[in-house]
Specification:
Elements: H1 2-14, H2 19-37, H3 42-49, H4 53-62
Length: 72
């Protein structure tokens, strides 16, 4: 895992991607994947991320992540 991450970071640096953009994209992608795994359930996703559901809701809003409707 560490090796893959190092390769990704090297690629970002080689493409002149700044740290702020890289962090925002990583966080956004990570949250989207957790939401998918929990079918859009904010409570379960927040628990998986180790944060309060209100904090996750704020991050989703700040990062402009589209709302994932839970599957019924």
């Amino acid at each position: 895992m560490h090796h893959k991450l190092s390769e990704l970071v090297a690629e970002l640096i080689n493409n002149d991607i700044d740290l702020q953009f890289a962090k925002k994209e990583l966080e956004s992608t990570y949250i989207r994947e957790i939401l998918k795994r929990h079918n859009g359930n904010i409570g379960l996703s927040a628990k998986a991320l180790g944060m309060h559901r209100n904090t996750l809701s704020k991050r989703i809003k700040d990062l402009k992540i589209p709302h994932l409707k839970p599957e019924v």
